[in-house]
Amino acid sequence: MLQTIVRDYAWIHLGIGLFGNFCFVVGSVLFFETFKAWHTLAVWLFVAGSAGMFLGSLGELAKSLYERREKRRAN
Hints:
Elements: H1 2-8, H2 10-30, H3 39-74
Helix pairs in contact: 2-3
């Protein structure tokens, strides 16, 4: 089942990674002096952003490994 999710729903990995990148950008902006009151939100956006980017990368890695294994089996 995990193999099917990783291969057939690769767009999810991309979406999670994009969400992570978006959180990083917004979190970075909120660290400016002007948004001092939003510091806690900025920190949490950094945490969510890094988690999203990590999960997206893990999904891409798993997809690549499954594809490589299938390619070797086919040859």
